[in-house]
Amino acid sequence: xxxxxxxxxxxxxxxxxxxxxxxxxxxxxxxxxxxxxxxxxxxxxxxxxxxxxxxxxxxxxxxxxxxxxxxxxxxxxxxxxxxxxxxxxxxxxxxxxxxxxxxxxxxxxxxxxxxxxxxxxxxxxxxxxxxxxxxxxxxxxxxxxxxxxxxxxxxxxxxxxxxxxxxxxxxxxxx
Length: 175
What we know:
By secondary structure, the protein is an all-alpha fold. Helices cover 73% and strands 0% of the residues. Helix 3 crosses helix 6 (127-145) and helix 6 runs antiparallel to helix 7. It is elongated, with a radius of gyration of 22 Å.
């Protein structure tokens, strides 16, 4: 075997290894994204979006400065009434987790296997940016509710979810 043939064989092996690693990961990400789109169309997500927007427009009078106070009030009322499943807190968590999964697909992993900006633009609108902003404020309010539950001396991890949601929000401004 000549040197040229050996180099060609080595290059082919390299391409085969990359394809063996890339294709399954890309397929998995596409399947996760398809599942996310299906979940987005579900009544649970629709109800959560309506609940979060209604809270902001009705309870807070569309004033971001009121979110923390009103969120705490609603949380306490729901807790006293034993209302957890459809509570605002649950709805916020559902949406935050949904958008965190979307952001993780969009920003984590190698460049070739990430969800493309073009694909996200096709399926979502600029209104998502408003919802992400609202969720960010609500997540900060919820974080303050749970401050009392921290264990003394335990390190507080950086909030990766909020960071990715904010990154998705910044990108959504251009949709």
